Amino acid sequence: MFKDRKNLFNLGLLGIFIWLLITSYSSSKRKPESVGELLKDFSWLSDWPKWLDLPLMPLINKMFKSLNENYGFIFEAINNVLLAMLMGLKNFLVQAPWPLVIIGVVILAYYASGKKIKTTVAVGFCTFFIGFLHPRFWDKAIETTSIMIISIFLCLVIGVPIGIWMSRANKVREKILPILDLMQTIPAFVYLIPGIMLFGLGAVPAIIATFIYAVPPLVRLTDLGIRLVDTEVTEAADAFGASNKQKLWGVQIPLALPNIMQGINQCTMMALSMVVIASMIGTRGLGDEVLLGLQQLNVGRAAEAGIAIVLLAIVLDRITQSYGETLQERNSPTKKEKK
Amino acid sequence: MKFLKKLFLSAFFVSSLLATSANAGDCKARLGDFDWSSANIHTAISAFILEKGYGCEVSVTKGSTTPIMAAHYDGQLDVITEVWYDNIIANYEPYVANGTIKNIGVNTPDSQQAFYVDKTTADKYNLKSVEDMKDPKIAALFKDPENPSKGRMTSCISGWTCYTVNLVKQKEYGLDAFYTNFDPGSGGALDAAIAGAFAKKKPIFTYYWAPTGLMGKVDLVRLTEPKWSEKCWADMSAVVEKIKAEGPEAYTKSCASEYRDMALTKSVLTKWADAHPEETKFLSQYSIPTATVNRMLAYYEDESDGDMELTAKEYLKSETAWTSWVPADVASKVKAAL
User: Fold this and answer.
1) Chain A contacts of B65, Cβ < 8 Å?
2) Interface test with B, best of A69, A144, A190, A193 (most B CBs within 10 A)
3) CATH code at position B14
4) What is the DSSP string of B235-283?
5) How far does the CA of residue B62 sit from the closest CA of chain A (Å)?
6) Nearest-CA distance A249 → chain B (Å)
7) Which domain holds residue B196?
8) Beta bridge partners of B207
9) H or E stretch covering A331
10) In a domain, B286, yes or no
11) A198 contact residues in B (CB cutoff 8 A)
12) Confidence (pLDDT) at A34
């Protein structure tokens, strides 16, 4: 019975393939006058024939056009929400005096790293050097950071629950993994240009693009982290009669936190690498300095901006990474024995 | 979509290069191409004629204005089929003077670049000139979401000279108090921003140019500006070059006028022209009117499935003007290749 169903499914796939071939052929503008010609003249076997062409492009264009015309208001709403969040954050940080911002970053680094002086000092200096490289970079770095913080916030809100869901159901995992692969490999420009048409030029399509690019590692590592939690520990939780919910929040998530933090760290790094690409759709920030340097053949300008991006990466990496390490130390059994 | 088109396009150039390298003669032509469609079409048509008609080995390099022109001045690219001459006079002329390159005439006699507003908004608020735009109520229609106190003028790409020209124009016209000079980042993004505004029926105030495929599809109204004058333009170009070198702080009060409805020119290396007199003669006669270019661009975007070679072939099939640029034997070779 099962085998029959599988055969039927494969037969269905074959049917769809043949249907695609026929519709492609009949809708092609460059097909020969009659099918008979194909049997007389076999030249189409040497080069890929022009009529053997799946008409995917016009189909996508048509769908996209109707999406834009009929459901534009949904994207408008998303746009307004994200933009309001972004502008609020950005204006707050830009208007705050720069020494206060640096002190804020230093305090954050101090507590995130578990009061390690070395990391804190390094982070403080890196932050200072962003503005020190060129005064113009300070506001641009803040703009870049604001875009990233909003993107990472989106990643957390959407990515972590999906990761948890995946770790609890194999069927879900099977379906989501290929989607994550797709998100990681499809070239960014493919979704950047429709992003502009839906959201307009500027920061919002960049946030969406950054989200698409940066969320997969977070989902993967959340899933992995929960799966890696010792079965003995979860069994012990079961033995004490913990409900699924209690087990998740009390045992699995706390133990998976170092891995989740690693995911957030990876997510941050990947988000930063989108910065230059996003500048090609009019996103303000450090990326547009690099782009301008490239377009004006100004090596110094591009290098200066590139270094500023690296510094920003170091700051964000140190803060998230050291927070992960702090969590790991807190969770490791050896530490607990000492206490 | 634009990216896909470019991908197809470059794949086609690579393949055509491979296909012809076997039977090419001693003629080699390195063409420089840009990241906008009208340049692509001229490059595709001339590449086709050079390759099939003259048996040249053609290679095409694509990029944005500054790097491609720098490579041309440096002698790395032989032919540029579309030069936005007026925008780059100041750095182009010295190389003509020292004999590195030659200006070989016009490729599109009646192209234009200007500031545009979508027709619906222009009619509703009776917007005809840049002066009409200087009104906070009008600026609010084009509100820049990232800088809500001003309107957004979608401008040119920051690496292109027109970005700085627009910056100076805005200051001279007093538009800078009302509008941002918004850099869309890339040519594809500018097109997408205009197309997106029309799809959503939202007002748009933008810099744009013709011939383009998009210009044939959307209804943009050109805003009038002070009349073009040679003296004024030269003064402005000097300020523009200064800003490009030293940053926007280098702005000094000068003058501004409309972009001249200008002739897009072609440019060749003098060395290459001396070695290839026949091919140069063809290139200097090459010229296609804006209306035809717009039509070919619309064909490229809507019917060719983004296939520039097919578009070039369509041009060569449907038009006859080109046969007068080349000797009869070359014309028949090209026709045979179709």
Assistant:
1) 295
2) A193
3) 3.40.190.10
4) HHHHHHHHHHHH-GGG-------PPP---EEEEEEHHHHHH-HHHHHHH
5) 13
6) 40
7) 112-250
8) B115
9) helix A299-331
10) yes
11) 196
12) 76
Q: Is residue B266 part of a domain?
A: yes
CB–CB contact B146 A203 (8 Å): yes
Nearest CB partner across the interface for A282, out of B1, B3, B184? B184
b vs e for B6-28, b when ≥16 Cβ sit within 10 Å of the residue's Cβ?
Answer: bebbeebbeebbeeeeeebeebe
Q: Which chain B residues touch A282 with a CB distance below 8 Å?
A: 182-185, 189, 193
User: Which is higher by pLDDT, B305 or A112?
Assistant: A112
Taking the C-alpha atoms of A141, A147, A149 and A151 in order, what is their torsion angle to the nearest 10 degrees?
-150
Total of domains in chain A? 1
Of B250, B284, B301, which closes a domain?
A: B250
**Do B237 and B266 reside in the same domain of the chain?**
no
CA distance B327 to chain A (A): 31
Q: Answer with the one of B189, B217, B250 that is the final residue of a domain.
A: B250
Cα gap B268→B80, rounded to integer Å: 6
* B161 and B205 assigned to the same domain: yes
pTM over 0.80: no
pLDDT band at B8 (very low <50, low <70, confident <90, very high): low
B5 confidence band (pLDDT: 50, 70, 90) = low
How far does the CA of residue A268 sit from the closest CA of chain B (Å)? Answer: 23
Distance CA A270, CA A261 (A): 14
In a domain, residue A14? The reply is no
* CATH number assigned to the domain comprising residue B200: 3.40.190.100
pLDDT digit string, tens, across residues A63-77: 888 888 888 888 888
Residue A46 in domain: no
Q: Are residues B136 and B246 in the same domain?
A: yes
Interface pTM (ipTM) of the complex? 0.70
Q: Do the domain assignments include residue B235?
A: yes
Written as one letter, the residue type at A98 is W
Structure-block tokens of residue B168: 């100076």
Cβ distance A296 to B199 less than 8 Å, yes or no, reads no
Residues of A with CB under 8 A from a CB of B: 29, 53, 57-58, 61, 65, 68-69, 72, 76, 79, 83, 87, 187, 189-190, 192-194, 196-198, 200-203, 279-284, 288, 291-292, 294-297
